[in-house]
Amino acid sequence: MSDFKNGDIVTALYKTGKYIGEVTDSRPGVYVVKVMAVLKHPRQGDLHNPKEVDVPLFHERKALAFRERANIPEKMVKPYEGDIPDYNESLSSTFNELKERLEAEDSPFSAKSLETLSSIKREYELMYSIQL
């Protein structure tokens, strides 16, 4: 296991999202990371069939919440140095980046992803009182 200890600030990849967080615990092969900011909003859809629309369940993926703790495999945790952005600002920015990227594509996958993002947007605006 790497040498991260409680209190270390790290980047963590979780499913298709990337976060800045604080290590709060560790177990063999896993770190528990408390989310502080979003670096990359999770992609929508089926992880096992990327860019496919005709799947049994097209997943709606929200970013991990502010201060939510997640078990992150050790190989997905890296050191982070620098300023930690405000959670709401980082969520808004990464959400809009994903949305703009999908709007630039003309595919059934991007259309379905934009549909799921529309529903996520309403939840974010209620949960975090932010305008997306």
List the helices and strands and how they pair.
Layout: E1 9-14, E2 17-27, E3 30-40, E4 69-73, E5 77-79, H1 87-104, H2 108-128
Antiparallel strand pairs: 1-2, 1-5, 2-3, 3-4
Q: Strand-residue fraction? A: 25-35%
CATH H-level superfamily title: Kinase associated protein B domain
Determine the N-to-C terminus distance.
39 Å
Describe the global form.
globular
Strand order within the widest beta sheet: 4-3-2-1-5
Describe this structure in words.
It holds the Pfam family KapB. GO terms for molecular function: kinase activity. This is Kinase. InterPro entries: KapB (IPR014916), KapB_sf (IPR038080). Keywords: Kinase, Transferase. With 132 residues, this protein is of the alpha+beta class. It has a single domain, classed as SH3 type barrels (Roll), CATH 2.30.30.430. 30% of the residues lie in helices and 27% in strands. It has 2 helices and 5 strands. A 5-stranded antiparallel β-sheet has the order 4-3-2-1-5. Helix 1 (87-104) runs antiparallel to helix 2. The longest helix is centred in the last third of the chain and has 21 residues, at 108-128. It starts with 8 loop residues before the first strand and ends with a helix. The model has no long low-confidence stretch (mean pLDDT 94).
Give me a quick take on this structure.
Keywords: Kinase, Transferase. By secondary structure, this protein is of the alpha+beta class.
Keywords:
single chain; 132 residues; alpha+beta
